[in-house]
Amino acid sequence: MSYLANNQFGAKVSYGKQEINSACKPGKSVCADVHATTLVDAVNNPVGLAPITSGVVAKIPVVLAELTVQVNIDSINELPEPAIEIKKIKKHLKITQCLLLQNTNMLFVKGFVRKNIEYATLGCSNAKGICGDIKHCTIDVPFKFTTPIEFNGIAPAPVRNRAEAEFEYFRERDIFGPDFADKDRLLSGDLSEFNQTTTEYFNELPFCELISSRIVEFDEYLNPTKPHKATVPFEERIFNRIEEKVVIYITLKLLQKRQVAIGAVAGTTCPQDC
Q1: Where are the domains of the chain?
Q2: Which of the chain's ends, N or C, has fewer CB atoms near its CB within 10 Å?
Q3: CB 135 within 8 A of CB 121
Q4: pLDDT by 10-residue block (mean), the chain, 274 residues
C-alpha cells in the first residue's frame, strides 16, 4: 500500500518499509532528501574454529614499551578577520612521525594539533547590541620532541648490519725475465677479476600506536580593542590574534614484529587440517 501527501512546506512518500522525507521552502525546490530503509535481520550460523593446539612459532607484534609523554606548546594564532568572541574550538591530535632510533633508546615524535575555531564576527551594532556571522578557521599547530624509552623487559631485536666481503681465486702462471729461471712459477691470487659477497639483512622497524591523548589548553585574546568606526556596547572588544598555551598528554605504544613461541594447549587435539 502506498501513501502520498503534499503540503506547502514538504512532502512525505512511503513505499512499503522505505520512507523518503523531503524538506523544502515555500516556492522553492526540494533542498534535502532523507532516504530510510528498515532492514531485516539476517540469519547466521556459528562455524567451529580449528586452531593449532600443538604449539607454533608465530610472528606477531610484541610490545616493547608503553608510555605517556607530556608536550608543552606556546603558539600565537591569527584569525583572517576581527572577531568578537570565540564560540568553540574543536581539537584533534595527529602524529606524523614516531621513530625509535635503533641502537639507542631515543624516540623521535612529530605531529600537530588540528584546531577548528568557531568565532563571532562584527556585523551591525549599536550601543545595546551586536549582530554578525559565525565563521570558522582551521589551523594546524605543529610540535616535535624526543623522549627516552624505558623498555618493558624486552628490547628491540639487535640490528644486523649489511656486510660486504671480497674473495679471489688462486692462479699459477709462468714467469719471464732475466731474474727468473725456466722452472719458476708465479703463485698468487688472480688480479684479472673482482669477486665479492654482499649480505643484506632487512630488519624489522619498531613502530608506534597512538592510544590516547588529553589536551589542556588556555587561550587568551591579544590586544583586544574597541572598533574605530562602529558603536558597540561598552564592554565589547574585537581581536584577531590568540595566544594559546597547551599541555598535551600523549599515550603511545611501541611495538616490533618478533617471532614468538606459543606452547601447546593441554588436553586438546589438533584437527586433521590444522
Answers
A1: 2-37, 72-156+206-262, 166-199
A2: N
A3: yes
A4: 44 44 53 81 91 91 96 93 91 96 94 94 83 90 95 91 92 87 86 91 95 95 85 83 95 96 77 52
